[in-house]
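ok so for the tutorial part 2 we go from a plain amino acid sequence to predicted structure tokens. step 1 is just haveing the sequence, like this:
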Amino acid sequence: MKLLKNRYFKFGVAALLYTLWVIWLNSYWWLLGLIIIFDWYITKKVNWTFWKKRGQKNSTFIEWLDALIFAVVAVTFINIFFFQNYKIPTGSMEKTLLIGDHLYVSKLAYGPKIPNTPLSFPFAQHTLPLTKHTKSYLEWIELPYKRLKGFHHVKNDDIVVFNFPAGDTVVLQMQAQSYYSIVRGYAEQLKLQDQRQGAAVKSDAKYHSQARQYVWDNFDVVARPVDRRDNYIKRCVAIHGDTIQVIDGKVYINGMPEKDIKKMQSRYIIKTNGTPINPKAFERLNISRSDISMASNADYLIPLTKENVAKIKNFTNVVSVEKSTRHKGKYASYIFPHDTAYNWNEDYFGPLWIPEKGATVELTMKNLPLYKRIIDPYEGNKLEVRDSTIYINGKEAHSYTFKMNYYFMMGDNRHDSADSRFWGFVPEDHIVGRPVFIWLSLDKDKNFLGKIRWSRMFKGAER
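step 2 — the prediction. this is what the tokens look like for a chain of 463 residues:
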């Protein structure tokens, strides 16, 4: 016991742990911090906790302040380097993960990222608490991307938490939608307006430019660094070097069907004999009230697992249960890469190759829509197109070599998930961590203690 109280022993333990942390950081100028640790435990020349008086009894307020400062620093350090909490806000991963699940997300799984904007208000992603639009971070210091060593690399079928790639630009009045989808929506409205009025139809690029100007003139638009973009959670269905294709709603990786996901959902049309299905029957199948839509007076449009499809087919008043999919070749403007050269939709998508670090592709006007966000915002180049000629950083370009690995993410609730089919690749510098287990789960449709899903407490995040 005496040894544990010995100041030299305490210094030795603290110095060892700190040195191991510096080695992990691979930034050895941090070793200067050993001077502070030596003074803290041995020489005590500087009062590092300047808000407290040494050798005197401090007021209760000061003691509470000291405890609060220590807690904030400790939890911030843990959140950056080890783990953080993540709450499931939408149904994009149901039934694998449910709305209201609170997850322990490991940063050590893939290695923690050093924050790009280290000067920030604790525990706030991008907006100060009790405010609508005030930034919770300062951009006085912006650090480049750096990831420390972790235990694993992102693999196919991993469930991953990441920063939303299309969240680099945000319309503050409409944060539930991506800036790019908002601009596309206004561009389509402008085009439709001209068609209805019999006016000359302009190029898509012209409508996009007009829509962009309208958004910037009428709303508050801000840019966010990578670490301050909203956190999303999806399943990594394809990694760098893979080729993904979706055929009739089924995912194929390198020509092979993806691994069976037991709780994956797709949208189905349930036709009845004219009588409604008892709501209690849906409740027994753990189908949320918010998931139930009426296709007609007695027919339903509901996301279902294969297991629930089999059970519903046995209902006495159910005539048929058919998957609701879009037709092959039906172009959807909201689907990546948002170009008519690629007539893709949610259920017929690709084939699409996922870029990997060091690989070089030939650049053409046809495949540029696939890679333009990688070249420009993700990897920091200036991309221009003049007279159908591609320029990167002012030089004519016929090829491009990727600087990072990329991933393709999809939600397990396949018809109710805004994922890579809508906004494209996820760069490696956006990867945050991997969920390990559920430490709390609250059902939004229940009240008081009934809200707690006890059966999900401390359950592993299924893969």
